[in-house]
Amino acid sequence: MSDDQKTRDAVEAFRALLGLALRLRNQMDERLRPDGLTTQQAALLTAVERLDGPSVTQAAAFLGTSHQNVAQLVTSLERKGMLAVHPDPADGRRRVLRATTVNADYWQARNPADHAAVAEWFSALSDDELRAFRDMTVRLLKAQITRGEGP
Length: 151
Fold this sequence. Notes:
Elements: H1 3-32, H2 39-51, H3 56-63, H4 67-79, E1 83-88, E2 91-99, H5 101-121, H6 127-147
Antiparallel strand pairs: 1-2
């Protein structure tokens, strides 16, 4: 494949992935809206659990967004009782984020329906295609994180 063709294919893949990501985010926002939540807030809660008590800066880096954006999400999620900010036991000057039992109970109740909806969104792919798509997108995401590209 020529360099020009590879570039055209990369740009087309980027456009398709961006369009897909925006559509999927909008669909999840619609599902969460009745409960006053957004996909971005859900992503932050997932990051907090995965990172096991990150700072706002660490959560922002994980999500590839700004400190200011995460700080706004934290404020909203604290008001909803889904997230708490605590002093870091190792460094009292640092603050860490922790998901609450309200958060755990909320997702336990709604995850089965949300997971079924997500599975439906990807139903155009065969099992093998879905696994390949998952593997490729995870690899691309890891490469972006490794390069430190983002806001």
